[in-house]
Amino acid sequence: MLSSMRRAVGLLALATLVSSADAQSPGSVPDTIEGHLASGKNAAGGRDNTPDFYGLVTAICVAPQHGAPPPDAPAPREDPNRKATYMQPKQAFDDVYWLGTEAVSAWLLTSNDGYILYDTANVYDAEDVLIGGMKKLGLDPAQVKYVIVSHGHRGESGGAYLFQSRYGAHIVTADWDLIESSLYGYPTGKPKRDIVATDGMKVTVGERTITVYLTPGHTPGTISGIFQVHDRGKPLTVVYSGGTEFNFPNDVAHFDQYLASERRLAALAAAAGATVIINNQSQFNGAADKLRRLADRQPGERHPLDVGTEAVARYFKIEDECAQAQRLKVIAGQSELRH
Ligand SMILES: [Zn+2]
């Protein structure tokens, strides 16, 4: 009797502990807008730490947030100065190349039997940045067997049709509905429905495999990936975060979906031991600047993108805390959206 009472009291104490842990994020973050914003900003590192993610903090914790684009949003016009934003293509790792602009990243994973292109730049930039970039690097665009499109926004899906139509590459995405709705227009051709990404799907070319995970939130079909790269022969595990900003319908249900996906991806990245976080926009992980720093790298120095498991966890914490803050703003009617 006594022992069962003790057990009941013990369970009650445990339940109390769990519910208070549920209500607050780890580290006793106050469940307020200000509390979550402060916690998200602090996760950037800085001063005595490596300020890996100031760009991410600026985008989702500081700058006014974009809501979802209206259904009648005009298709993007060609920027006559777009070439001023182009950056030199670069070898990022032994077996990965970076192709991008000041804002947008695409990544080419090579193998002994063809390439996987991960995200595809804006529609007007794809020819110059992706195909032009590969040619500059001495790589053959016809070797692209699969194109992974993280989500159906313009900076990720813009060049997909080019690789599908010209080189017969297969396109893998879960955002076909968004692509087919043509929200942003595809003035040079819309990608035709091809491979539908599923959770845990493996995309393999030669000795390379990317495991794809469904992480809906940023868009309904956002996908993320985990894979290995090599740096001076050493294998490193990468988590590719497919969607970042809160430019979806800003209601509680959408924030809850976003938070659930990012928490799951954070757990998958931690379980896989990911020490590198990459994505499709340089501002979030500083890819363009860090890859420029590669030229200065000393023997024995860590790769600038190899930030470690603790920093990868902080990246997801920034997303988590600032999404929680924005969610509370929505509930309080304080959300200040910029269209
Ligand atoms: Zn997007």
Keywords:
339 residues, binds zinc ion, 37% helix, five-stranded mixed beta sheet, alpha/beta, seven-stranded mixed beta sheet, 19% strand
Low-confidence sequence ranges: 1-25
Shape: globular
Radius of gyration: 21 Å
| Strand order across the largest sheet | 2-3-4-5-6-7-8
Strand tally is 14
Summarize the structure in words.
The chain is an alpha/beta fold and 339 residues long. It is 37% helix and 19% strand. It has 11 helices and 14 strands. It has a 7-stranded mixed sheet, with helices on both faces. Helix 2 packs antiparallel against helix 11, helix 3 packs parallel to helix 11 (309-332) and helix 8 packs antiparallel against helix 11 (309-332).
What's the arrangement of secondary structure elements?
Layout: H1 2-23, H2 33-42, H3 54-62, E1 65-66, E2 90-93, E3 96-100, E4 105-109, E5 115-118, H4 126-136, E6 144-148, H5 154-157, H6 160-167, E7 170-173, H7 176-181, E8 195-196, E9 202-205, E10 208-214, E11 223-231, E12 234-240, H8 252-272, E13 276-278, H9 282-285, H10 287-293, H11 309-332, E14 337-338
Parallel strand pairs: 1-14, 5-6, 6-7, 7-8, 12-13
Antiparallel strand pairs: 2-3, 3-4, 4-5, 9-10, 10-11, 11-12
Helix pairs in contact: 2-11, 3-11, 8-11
Bound molecules: zinc ion.
